């Protein structure tokens, strides 16, 4: 049985879906790497909302997805850009998400780290206001019992006059943090408002400032998440980190090689692509735990084509593909997103995402995924 899928040239192609999912097993906690999956939120499809409304979240389905990730041994990176921070989920919604997920993590023994930003600021802000916004969010995350991830701030990017302002703001926050945090450098491909972060559009200069922040407070930095989609730059930064500071790759284009590492070190992981890849990614890391790098690469390398497809420019809309695959996989009953973001990718894009994910065996019930793909095609007027 085949399914007619639209291509990128206005035509159609026949695709034969697989009949069995990839066989994966759960197991003991990871020993060689610390691995977080950034997790998406599930919208309430019955809420009467508009793209400008506060997010309406289906909390039961959202927390169930986090339990799915924890069940495979993955940590959850909560309230990050994958959860549509700044693209549909406002600070009030993020705060509730952090409270609920942190409580759920405590109940099931799951690893969790939560995003700390400044998105309660809705207009131009001073550096003092940026610091205060960060402090408010840092306090909430620490009170929840979760680890803090200091996210890049649009407000800081707009207010800072140069590297010295970043050094001052981050130094202030790190001195206040009660436990070591993860610093997040999110590139402008993920959020154009972050162009010139760390005080320069020259990435070499920005890297130097970033490393100065860490070098001044190594005891307060558990690790860094680098999301620049440049493997070479991440490796360079990784090799320049103080002893004991981890690098968590956020490179959704080159993650297998970065996690595998080289003779001089490796990256841990904090990745949006591990939302749809969860069970397969966990299987690969357990293989790596045995020292079998080739086996790890054999499992994870074939997933890169899907990841590069989902994260293709404009990269910030990768969340649409992530939620689409969660729907096909049966993790939620609908394909609706907060802010109406389900409209951010084209039908040919969805068709290719389905084909690649199905080929990897990512759908626990391939027949359900096929039926849902056909339902979406019918909405667009494609008859089988």
Main pleated sheet:
8 strands, parallel, barrel
SS field, number of helical segments: 14
Indicate the structural class.
alpha/beta
Task: Look at the structure and give the mean pLDDT.
Answer: 97
H/E element order: EEEHEHEHEHHEHEHEHEHHHHHH
C-alpha termini separation: 11 Å
Counted beta strands:
10
What is the helix fraction of residues, given as a range? 40-55%
Strand order of the largest sheet: 3-4-5-6-7-8-9-10
Low-confidence stretches: none
Principal-axes geometry comes out as: globular
SS strand fraction: 5-15%
> Radius of gyration in whole Å, from Cα?
20 Å
In brief:
The protein has 384 residues and is of the alpha/beta class. Helices cover 44% and strands 12% of the residues.
What would you say this structure looks like, in words?
This protein has helices at 59-71, 91-108, 127-144, 154-159, 163-176, 203-216, 231-239, 255-260, 274-289, 293-300, 304-310, 318-328, 347-360, 366-379; strands at residues 3-6, 12-15, 35-38, 75-78, 112-116, 147-150, 181-186, 221-227, 246-249, 268-271. It has 384 residues and is an alpha/beta fold. Strands 3-4-5-6-7-8-9-10 form an 8-stranded parallel barrel, surrounded by 5 helices. It is globular, with a radius of gyration of 20 Å.
